[in-house]
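ok, trying the design again with the full structure, not the truncated one.
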């Protein structure tokens, strides 16, 4: 019997246009809409001073500055994983300090949710080559874990409500929601241009956020796919130039009908024909 270990035969080279690719396979996914009600917005000392002297305040915009995504195996439920997502939301606020006088300042909110998704099972440990690794080195950074990878897609949060709570009490008193304690002292102080204040007697700002998200969990896999030759683009590159008349460029732009319509023209049929949104994809 001939030895074919050093040949190009096998499924990945069968002369039928089939090739093997290394990619991520989606094991499970879900979509969700979360309403984070009365989430505390953390401010700097300057922001708290503004808040203490306002007659009215509104949130102008909110953006996700950063998000932590963690994956932990669910005990006694093989193949399922808990995906923990923590959003760091930067909020731009506008305060009315008097008649015809306003001032903008920034705050930080932290939102967190968990979902359960199926991530499959595996019992292998992955190692890969590293150009910085030589024959005698002992660099363990090329060792891969067996956990799947969680991916979160989301749009910017929607601001649904804003309120100020005047609370000048200590946390050992009956103060309700005024005395929540979330450690965000090291979270993105560059956005706030200062450190977060931990004053217990300052008024507190709370905002209700709405967040749409799509969450999926993937695992590396090898697939056999049909392929042709190497793909070379047919389109030639167009050199960037400023010589063309700006009005001529504007005339070539398509009219943004969807922006004026306010929708992409597609609607969903009552969230899956009236079925409830239950299941594991909730807080």
């Amino acid at each position: 019997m001939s030895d074919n270990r050093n040949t190009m035969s096998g499924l990945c080279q069968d002369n039928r246009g089939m090739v093997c690719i290394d990619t991520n396979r989606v094991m499970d996914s879900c979509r969700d809409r979360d309403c984070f009600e009365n989430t505390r917005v953390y401010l700097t000392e300057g922001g708290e001073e503004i808040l203490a002297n306002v007659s009215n305040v509104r949130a102008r915009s909110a953006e996700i500055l950063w998000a932590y995504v963690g994956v932990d195996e669910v005990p006694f439920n093989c193949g399922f994983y808990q995906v923990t997502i923590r959003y760091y939301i930067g909020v731009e606020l506008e305060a009315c300090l008097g008649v015809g006088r306003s001032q903008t300042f920034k705050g930080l909110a932290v939102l967190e949710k968990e979902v359960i998704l199926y991530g499959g099972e595996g019992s292998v440990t992955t190692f890969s080559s590293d150009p910085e690794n030589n024959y005698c080195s002992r660099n363990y950074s090329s060792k891969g874990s067996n956990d799947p990878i969680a991916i979160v897609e989301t749009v910017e949060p929607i601001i649904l409500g804003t309120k100020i709570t005047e609370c000048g009490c200590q946390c050992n008193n009956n103060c309700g929601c005024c005395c929540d304690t979330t450690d965000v002292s090291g979270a993105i102080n560059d956005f706030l241009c200062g450190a977060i204040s931990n004053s217990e007697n300052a008024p507190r700002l709370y905002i209700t956020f709405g967040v749409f998200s799509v969450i999926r969990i993937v695992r590396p896999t090898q697939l056999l796919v049909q392929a042709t030759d190497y793909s070379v683009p047919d389109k030639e590159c167009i050199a960037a130039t400023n010589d063309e008349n700006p009005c001529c460029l504007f005339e070539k732009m398509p009219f943004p009908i969807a922006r004026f319509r306010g929708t992409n023209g597609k609607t969903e049929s009552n969230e899956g024909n009236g079925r409830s949104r239950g299941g594991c994809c909730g807080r």
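Keeping the full-length input from now on. The first helix runs from residue 45 to 52.
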